[in-house]
């Protein structure tokens, strides 16, 4: 018996009202469920014939390594997100994906994607929407690195994480459990760990947000949102696009 | 009579061997062809119910404006690229698109996308591939801003542009006509125009690449590729994924 109510189904439902056959087709993405320990690299940059996964539980991160050994984290993945969707379309993966915590993820083959597109075109548009949303997040991280000062960049990133988590039913408006270290934040924000530490202290002392002991608490959401210029429109839909 | 051989069809053919019905469905994306002058803003960040376009001729750029008036260019679009595909899926556009040169572009409605997905699922996977490829380019620009020094960043960006253009039959391996100004380069590379000028002079004096008088000439492709760590794998396919 396959579960139809998965985080991926919740997320895609923000875009498309999924019919019973759509949900059954989507449930097939969850057939090959596996567990990976924290630190396990699921997808390897530069390798061919990689699988993609749908994350069901835990946190992962996608990144690229530079020739000098430095790492740029592109994004973190939370339940309901695809891991390495590009890898199965590109033959050679252009990035790596690592488990941040112990995770549960289901392997998705290219044939699963093709079958679902052939039988459920509404699901195809929903997957295109999810991929576009991933791209929108990368664009925000690009703007973070290119044009936003360290404090605003950090605030924007934490608000985005909170909004994403709520959409799949994790955390509350006031905050969320967060397994990321200051090294993770440094590698996604293009800052040194020392700089991240200083920025987090400043944000806490300003009464805006507290990141401590594995939890992010938003202390003043309106002021933090204004500081970050954060508009969650790219993450959510006020109502499904396809009713 | 619709033309079946468009730059978009050439690009997607790298991923999927398109059948005659696929090509006819794709040709419908080109029905509403329009001309826009250089500098015209086709898609406006923050506005609802925007159209998407397929670029047939000329260059465009997608960008986000920051509250302080600074601009981060996300990417440039060349013939065969979608403009604002995310805008029609997100209701509210998360970015703006402007014509860099005089352009010809065809308006694509959400219903065109949905119809094509319902009737040509192979085309749906090809559009997902094209969107994934756009995302891969944004990821490269993210890594550029986050971890690559100015000279390597510029070299990587120019090699990427050259490879993209060749895939749609523009330019040669040795170089290409380029309408971008140093201000465009500054806004995509997160550098000042003065810094871009200095970097371009250095790359030219090192015998690597010359960007002058609206042309980019690769003077030493192997050495430039090594310097940039450029691997065009994310832009092209050695053979179609779906034969």
From TrEMBL, chains A, B:
Domain Cyclic nucleotide-binding: 14-110
Every HTH crp-type domain range: 148-222
Swiss-Prot/TrEMBL GO biological process terms: regulation of DNA-templated transcription
Sorted UniProt keywords: DNA-binding, Transcription, Transcription regulation
InterPro entries: cNMP-bd_dom, cNMP-bd_dom_sf, HTH_CRP, RmlC-like_jellyroll, WH-like_DNA-bd_sf, WH_DNA-bd_sf
Superkingdom, taxonomy of origin: Bacteria
Record bears the keyword Transcription regulation: yes
Any Pfam family: cNMP_binding
Gene Ontology MF, one: DNA binding
Family matches, as CDD domains: CAP_ED
UniProt keyword DNA-binding present: yes
Record-given protein name: CRP-like cAMP-binding protein
Native species: Roseicyclus mahoneyensis
